[in-house]
Design brief:
Length: 336
């Protein structure tokens, strides 16, 4: 699918993070999204969306297939540019910044279809997430944004990688410790596989690796796009436990998820999208009984109250990859 360049979007390469004084003064939100729009060839994927995420809050976005959930996350993480609207993190505008800069500002994400580097080990996959934070090993990294001066940081990084400096060695030790602590978060699953290449992992373990990579950044805001897609019931329950632990630790999360049991358990607030717009928003139990939500999300046949198995089944996205068809899960080796 082609991606349009949004009308009015800044030229690519522009990476400013502006301080929005008005937003900073009036809002204590961690993330503030105002009037966000993104259209693709006439499809209003995101059509005037506004919401906030408070510090330490877990907010979920639910909605039918194609309602604009992933596009919203793509806009917040900088993977896509908005056609209109603003996105602010702690009052600082990030909607013109590139994804690396947004990650530096404290927004980390995982992807709906799972993205790991197949030939890298679990540890290296997690370490990749920390690249943007390196300072001693990347002393001229800010110059890499200036097209004509890109060669300076490249040569500098190459030199330091070959020769090493006391500061870069110290930094590498800190990185190793961070990576190790994230692998240990999933110790039972990833621990024995920390040196295995990602291609040999089960689907569920690849998703855990991706979450570990995002968390290694110690983000202010964690964006998760269907972290349990393709997972069976017990794997989903494990992810729920980990999300509840993150929530207890005060991690702010913007979660896109189809499994409503999980959403209702972990969320402080739920946003419901349909056709690129927010059609309902509120506490999980309120949203669950909202007639507009029942209509849009599940159709006329059934309601949200209580029939959770039906809900999960009907809410499952059409393109989910069954865990049992990929990697070590297929052999039964991993998730036993
Ligand atoms: N890169 C793109 N090019 C063209 N159309 C796109 C693109 N990305 C998304 N769309 C369209 O925008 C709409 C919203 O898509 P999006 O992926 O955000 O939905 P979603 O709510 O995440 O759906 P799902 O639950 O299936 O993941 C859909 O109609 C989709 O086809
Ligand atoms: Mg999606």
């Amino acid at each position: 699918m082609s991606e349009n360049t949004a009308a009015g979007a800044p030229a690519s390469g522009e990476t400013s993070v502006e301080v929005d004084a008005a937003t900073a003064a009036t809002s204590d939100a961690l993330l503030s999204v105002e009037g966000l729009e993104r259209h693709f060839d006439g499809v209003r994927a995101v059509d005037g969306v506004s919401f906030t995420v408070a510090p330490h809050e877990v907010v979920s976005i639910i909605g039918p297939n194609g309602s604009g959930k992933t596009t919203t996350l793509n806009l917040v993480s900088g993977a896509l540019r908005a056609g209109a609207g603003t996105i602010s993190l702690e009052g600082r505008r990030i909607d013109h910044a590139d994804p690396a800069r947004i990650a530096e500002e404290g927004v980390a994400r995982t992807f709906q279809n799972g993205r790991v580097f197949a030939t890298l080990s679990v540890r290296d996959n997690v370490e990749v997430g920390l690249h943007s934070t390196l300072t001693a090993s990347r002393p001229f990294r800010r110059l890499s944004r200036l097209f004509l001066l890109r060669w300076i940081p490249l040569l500098g990084e190459l030199f330091i990688a070959i020769i090493g400096t006391p500061a870069s060695r110290r930094e590498q030790k800190q990185i190793d410790a961070r990576v190790e602590s994230e692998v240990q978060r999933f110790e039972a699953r990833l621990g024995p596989r920390r040196d295995d290449p990602a291609y040999s992992l089960s689907y569920a373990n690849r998703r855990r690796t991706e979450i570990a990579r995002a968390l290694a950044l110690q983000p202010k805001l964690l964006l998760l796009d269907e972290p349990t897609a393709g997972m069976n019931q017990s794997e989903t329950a494990e992810v729920l436990e980990q999300l509840l632990q993150l929530k207890a630790d005060g991690q702010a999360i913007l979660l896109v998820e189809h499994k409503l049991d999980l959403v209702m358990t972990v969320s402080d607030r739920v946003i419901v999208m349909d056709g690129g717009r927010i059609i309902a928003e509120g506490a999980p139990q309120t949203v669950r009984h909202d007639p507009a939500v029942i209509e849009a999300y599940l159709g006329r046949r059934r309601g949200l109250g209580g029939a959770t198995d039906d809900v999960v089944a009907s809410a499952a996205p059409a393109d989910e990859t069954p865990a049992a068809t990929t990697g070590d899960a297929a052999t039964g080796e991993d998730e036993a």
